[in-house]
Amino acid sequence: EEKIFAGKVLRLHVCTMEGAEWLEEVPEDTTVEKLKERCLKHCVPGSLEDPKTVTHHKLIHATSEKVLTDTKTVLEENIQDRDVLLLIKKRAPPPLPKMADVSAEEKRKQEQKAPDKDAILKATANLPSRSVDRTVAHHNMRDFQTELRKILVSLIEVAQKLLALNPDAVELFKKANAMLDEDEEDRVDEIALRQLTEMGFPESRAVKALRLNHMSVTQAMEWLIEHADDPAVDAPLPGQTPAEATAEGGASSAEATAGPSSEAGGEEAKDELTEIFKKIRRKREFRPDPRAVIALMEMGFDEKEVVDALRVNNNQQNAACEWLLGDRKPSPEDLDKGIDTNSPLFQAILENPVVQLGLTNPKTLLAFEDMLENPLNSTQWMNDPETGPVMLQISRIFQTLNRT
């Protein structure tokens, strides 16, 4: 009966790491642990007296690289006839560390740990202090803008001299001046204005709200509701006084008288050109951000100081506030100083063909004048097909020479 019901006998090829190999014939219902004992009798005779010998070895199926489980049978591990098994001694577990070693390891980890704030302050208490306040970083960020202003001041002088040599200079600048009139910055978005007036807000008040809120209908409406009972709601915006109207009137009279003088000769044409330059400069006067003006004046600063601060800091309210509270450098007068015309930077800019061609275009001069007084308008001139390439070349030359 035992022979009839006995399981299938498998012939297994067993190898060891030392190079020994042999065939083991076992029924398929033999446990892996029993198989391991039989294998150990072949390669380690007489050592089975130590019960740990069996547990310190393992059998591995060579094809699948699977470690066989002691409690499972050969059949359950899916071992087939003539499969190859490896008998390998298990690696001894690492010894438990001594208390002294544990303390040393903890100490090493503590030494590698980053110091906390108190430790840093204690270690640096006796070091000499250095001036590293926020204004230093701010000035470093503003280096390019500061240099760009100086470059524009000097390029405006060069462009004016070049354009003055052109016999058609007066006519060119009359056309350029007409472009200014067509692209007046103070124009209000008509659709936005109509939306507010249809809600019942007075037109003049709606115009003021739109200018204060950068033509945003939603923000302008909120401002109008918030200031509905404010007695000063209809007061003109700071920096936009009736004087602008007189300036426009004076400009118009200058244009009216400029026509006949061009026929009198070169000197008269030059005077006419000077008048046109003055008129353009008046139109492109710096326009402070009205919201920033109001916010800074509410802090107690004088309007003139606030406008100067915004002009120096390109209409950036936070930077203007720091300037007002700090040493107020650079001063507004410093903004009108040009770059050293003998410097390598300025010479490289003037030698650039794109810049040379651009300086003969009246629109480039208008762009320089506008960016000088309203730096926030730089983006529109950078995107302009005529003035954009010139500004791109100036920026590239500055960045290249700044790295060398």
UniProtKB/TrEMBL annotation:
Pathway: Protein modification; protein ubiquitination. InterPro entries: STI1_HS-bd, UBA, UBA-like_sf, UBA1_UBAC1, UBA2_UBAC1, UBAC1, Ubiquitin-like_domsf, UBL_UBAC1. Residues 104-115 have a biased composition (Basic and acidic residues). It is found in: Cytoplasm. Keywords: Cytoplasm, Repeat, Ubl conjugation pathway. Residues 181-227, 287-327 form the UBA domain. Residues 241-264 have a biased composition (Low complexity). It comes from the Eukaryota. SUPFAM superfamilies: UBA-like, Ubiquitin-like. GO terms for biological process: protein ubiquitination. One of its GO terms (cellular component) is ubiquitin ligase complex. Its main location: cytoplasm. The keyword Ribosomal protein does not apply. The keyword Disulfide bond does not apply. CDD domains: UBA1_KPC2, UBA2_KPC2, Ubl_KPC2. Residues 96-115, 231-271 are annotated as: Disordered. This is Ubiquitin-associated domain-containing protein 1. It comes from Baryphthengus martii. The gene is Ubac1.
